[in-house]
Amino acid sequence: MAAPQKGRRQTGAPGKPGRTLILFLIAMIALVGGMFGAGELTPRLGIDLAGGTTITLKAKSSPGQANAVNETNMNTAVGIIERRVNGLGVQEAEVQTQGSDNIIVNIPKGTNSQQAREQVGTTAQLYFRPVLTLGPGDPAQQQPPPDATPSAGSSESPSPSASESGKPKESAEPPAAGAPSASETTQGRALTEDLKADATPTPGASDKPDASETPAPSDSAAPPADPATEKLQADFVALDCTNEKARGALGDTAKPSQPTLACGENDGVWEKYILGPAEVGGKDVDDANATINQQTGQWIVQMDFTGGGSKKFQSITSKLSQQQAPQNQFAIVLDGEVVSAPSVRQTLSANAEISGNFTQESAQDLGNILSYGALPLTFREETVTTVTAALGGEQLHAGLIAGAIGLALVIIYLVLYYRGLALIAIISLLASAVMTYAIMTLLGPGIGFALNLPAVCGAIVAIGITADSFIVYFERIRDEIREGRTLKPAVERAWPRARRTILVSDFVSFLAAAVLFTVTVGKVQGFAFTLGLTTVLDVVVVFFFTKPIMTLVARTKFFSGGGSWSGLDPKRLGAKPPLRRGPRRLSAPTDPKEA
């Protein structure tokens, strides 16, 4: 019989369990030390445990874009919403798609969470449109429009003016020094918003025409002379800006290339507009920031245009500066609503200011929205679920109680059935718990992992998976003892078979967790992630902690002696007597014929 080769360990040999155990303990200490070093002593909690708001947004196509709801636009919208929320300083917000047309936004309870909720679904379609007609938003307050055909001695353009919508005309001549501007005295609204720029006025742009002269209207300032104009005028007269549904319908039908109706609120009073085609869009704005005007002390929004945007803005302000009120105004339209409608007194180009009745919060909101761009789709708020911190604490408390009950039942079963071996299982469970807790805590600042209620459920299920691995190994050892072997060889001979079974079982669990994580979204992914993580840790603990511990305790008298409380008593297990290895004896024949 050939002797085993030197330097090659036989199957079932004990190896060096002490070294393996030391490496495992070093890894555990490193994880715990990293947790303290990072200053994170508890895992981050999700919305359902810490409190916060979950918003479900449903996408719908904009006018003229039937197939706009696609994967590319949805991913773009997720990125924009995420930047908006993070731009407000909200930490740990989660934005992700669900299905083909839904976006789930999780906003933790805390500073600026309410502002973030207000901004997540705002489409932020920004356009700069010239004002053609201005009137009161309540139809009951407006006067019947006069004949659109000017009289023979009229100096007005056929295009609608403030006087045609029930307001007196504004003089085209600049106001005297110290006197209020015409827009402040004759339009009935405080049009004090000024657009300022670093560029100087173009020659002749600031020279207003004489009041007796008819200004040459720009292409964008004159509505088209066709039946569409009459319909637009009729819709303008019937428009009631005090009706929220009517205002919402305007944003759904507005197209950038066509004149449209819009509403705007000024000092609590609604006003309605006929606006020309959009001259400058939100994509032409390079940056926008909220700041305080050092002269007036009021909050304003400063905008910087791109190169192409500066040229467009210079062109439109050059045309508007030569018009009479209200056609020397341009409306800043955000999602179909007029945010501001300042008068233009000179040609502007590089940058601009939006001023008005802004608070710090409203100025920051507008600057934040303009900075990160418009959403490619329009979204409707489907559901809003708010969880208070108290309710989240109750759910966490209930989850911990459920985990404690499950762990207690497993320990009771192990003690009653395996007796002394239960001590090894409990120590292994504690080692697995420490590793899981440390890794979850470090994953919070690392990848933004937040422990939610489904993740807690996954951790509870993992208790049974880990205990099952111990049971498989213990039963293999008992099988070897039943075959008549002593504890030391039984521990080593049982390991290869138990190891194969544990790997197959954990692979199936990990595969199920991976598939669940891939095909689901939202909170269910938390369950799948925790289940997969604990399954991997089960393999690590059994291979590098439970097996070396079992090899070491097999050398102790308490376990190797097979006492009744060790859980390895040969008599209780029904062990067979040891096999005799002596020479076989042939019995003498009893039949005389055979002799």
Write the layout of secondary structure elements.
Blueprint: H1 17-37, H2 47-50, E1 52-60, H3 71-87, E2 94-98, E3 102-108, H4 113-120, E4 126-136, H5 182-185, H6 227-238, H7 244-253, E5 260-266, E6 269-275, E7 280-281, E8 285-292, E9 299-305, H8 307-320, E10 330-334, E11 337-340, E12 351-355, H9 360-372, E13 378-387, H10 389-418, H11 421-447, H12 453-482, H13 487-519, H14 523-553, H15 557-560, H16 570-573
Parallel strand pairs: 5-11
Antiparallel strand pairs: 1-3, 1-13, 2-3, 4-6, 4-7, 4-10, 5-6, 8-9, 9-12, 10-11
Helix pairs in contact: 1-11, 1-14, 3-4, 10-11, 10-12, 11-12, 11-14, 12-13, 12-14, 13-14
Overall description:
This protein has 595 residues and is an alpha+beta fold. Helices cover 44% and strands 15% of the residues. The protein is built from 16 helices and 13 strands. Helix 10 (389-418) packs antiparallel against helix 11. The protein is elongated and about 115 Å long. The model is unreliable at 4-13 and 145-221 (pLDDT under 50).
User: What radius of gyration results from the CA coordinates?
Assistant: 39 Å
Q: Strand order within the widest sheet?
A: 4-6-5-11-10
Overall geometry comes to elongated
Number of strands: 13
Low-confidence stretches: 4-13, 145-221
How would you state the average pLDDT, rounded?
74
The largest sheet is: 5 strands, mixed, barrel
Determine the N-to-C terminus distance.
Answer: 38 Å
The share of residues in helices is 40-55%
**Global structural class:** alpha+beta
Order of helices and strands: HHEHEEHEHHHEEEEEHEEEHEHHHHHHH
- The number of helical runs is 16
